[in-house]
Amino acid sequence: KQEVTQIPAALSVPEGENLVLNCSFTDSAIYNLQWFRQDPGKGLTSLLLIQSSQREQTSGRLNASLDKSSGRSTLYIAASQPGDSATYLCAAPNYGGATNKLIFGTGTLLAVQP
Amino acid sequence: DVKVTQSSRYLVKRTGEKVFLECVQDMDHENMFWYRQDPGLGLRLIYFSYDVKMKEKGDIPEGYSVSREKKERFSLILESASTNQTSMYLCASNDGKSPSYEQYFGPGTRLTVT
């Protein structure tokens, strides 16, 4: 069964820093990996989805990479802002198939200090 | 934009009550999912549905049932609420025909059982 781990569990950085969030998964036979953002008490907002055929996906100041062979994905946030403060979750499919049941990491709580 | 809505943001129920959580999506998605989120445990899949009247158990189905009578609506039912079902409940959907299978989430329902 797929297992997803996120390190670190919490991160505090000053405004303007570039930072990297890490996600590891045990079953490399995935066809995509998804990164989400969650604000306190709210639902999940999809940030980026990387297909297995891609190595990177970019949206604004966010860049996600995927290395299936090593079972790792990273989310790079450039020039961090206080508004980036949230919990960031990655999720990988439990197995291939149309339903795409996702296994989630427990998240990285990011605090960007002004 | 995909929109997933949930009937309540906050709900307080008594032990033993029957509880209905409603989820509606407006993008004609085949697949719909119910998760619960607890501190330290992350998101866990309760049930999912891949078509009208079709459902499959997720990782933690005990104490829950679901109903999908129409494609856009997926209901989670707590037959007899218990205090250990106090949690954040999140609904999601995705397009089973899409190559990306990106999941979209609702805003969540914070359920407290007293």
What's the topology here?
The complex is a heterodimer of chains A (114) and B (114).
Chain A: E1 4-7, E2 10-14, E3 19-25, E4 32-38, E5 44-51, E6 56-59, E7 62-67, E8 72-77, E9 86-93, E10 102-104, E11 108-113
Parallel strand pairs in A: 2-11
Antiparallel strand pairs in A: 1-3, 3-8, 4-5, 4-9, 6-7, 7-8, 9-10, 9-11
Chain B: E1 4-6, E2 10-13, E3 19-25, E4 31-38, E5 42-51, E6 54-57, E7 64-70, E8 73-78, E9 87-94, E10 104-105, E11 109-113
**Coarse shape of chain B:** globular
Number of strands of chain B: 11
Chain-averaged pLDDT of chain B: 93
What structural class is derived from the secondary structure elements of chain B? mainly beta
Percent range of helical residues of chain B: under 10%
Helix/strand order of chain A: EEEEEEEEEEE
The total count of helices of chain B amounts to: 0
Rounded to the nearest angstrom, the distance between the terminal CA atoms of chain A is 41 Å
Tally of DSSP helical segments of chain A: 0
Q: Regions of chain A with pLDDT < 50 over 5+ consecutive residues?
A: none
Quick structural overview:
The complex is a heterodimer of chains A (114) and B (114). Chain A is an all-beta fold and 114 residues long.
Tags for this model:
heterodimer; A: mainly beta; 0% helix; globular; B: mainly beta
Q: What does this protein look like?
A:
The complex is a heterodimer of chains A (114) and B (114). With 114 residues, chain A is mainly β. Chain A is 0% helix and 56% strand. In chain A, the strands form two sheets. In chain A, strands 2, 4, 5, 9, 10 and 11 form a six-stranded mixed β-sheet that branches. Chain A has a five-stranded antiparallel β-sheet with strand order 1-3-8-7-6, with no helix packed on it. In chain A, a hairpin with an 8-residue loop joins strand 9 and strand 10. With 114 residues, chain B is an all-beta fold. In chain B, strands 2, 4, 5, 6, 9, 10 and 11 form a seven-stranded mixed β-sheet that branches. In chain B, strands 1-3-8-7 form a four-stranded antiparallel β-sheet, with no helix packed on it. In chain B, a hairpin with a 2-residue loop joins strand 7 and strand 8 (73-78). Chain B starts with a strand and ends with a strand. The model of chain B has no long low-confidence stretch (mean pLDDT 93). Chains A and B meet through strand 4, strand 5 and strand 9 of A and strand 5, strand 9 and strand 10 of B.
